[in-house]
Amino acid sequence: MKHYIYISLLFICISINAQVNVRTKIKDVDSTFLPKLTGDFFYEGKMYIGEQYYNKDWMTGDILLSTGAMVYDKSLKYNGLFDELIWLNGTNFTKIKIDKPIVSEFWLKNDPYSIIHFKQINLSEPGNVKQKDVFAELRVEGSFSLFVQRKISIIGTQLDYINNVVCQYDVITATPIYYIKLPSNQYLKLNKLRRRSFLKFFPDKKKNITKIIRTNNLDVSEESDFVRLIELMNNDKTL
Amino acid sequence: MSLLKRIFFLILVQQVALMYCDIKAQTKRKEIAYLQTDRIAYVAGESIFYKLYVLDEVTQKRSELSKVGYIVLRSANSDPSLKIRVKIDAGTGNGSFVLPDTLMSGAYEIVAFTSTMKNCGEECFFHKQITIANRFDNALDFKLVESVPKDSDLLYHLQPNLDFKIKTDKAVYGIREKVDVNLGTFNSKANVSVSVFEESKIPSTDKSIVETLKNGVDAKNIQRKLIYHSPETKGKILRAYVIDAKTQKTIKDVIVLLSCIDTIPNLQYAVTNSNGLFQMLLSDYYDGKELFLTIKDAPEDQNWQIRLEDEFAQSEKWHPKLISNNGNYKEFIVKSQNIVYINKSYQLNKSANEKSITDNTSICPQFYHCKTATILPSDFVPLNDFSEIAVELLPQVKIFKEKGKYDVQIYNPLMKRFSAITPAVFLDGVYVDDIDKIIGLGSDQIKKIDIIDNERAFGDLIFSGVISIISKSNEIASTKPASCSFRLKNDSINVGSGVVTIDSEYIQNKNIPVFKQLLYWNANLELNATDETHFEFYTSDNAANFTIRVEGVSENGTAISASSNFQVNNSINVIGK
Question: Quick check: pTM over 0.80?
Answer without folding.
Answer: yes
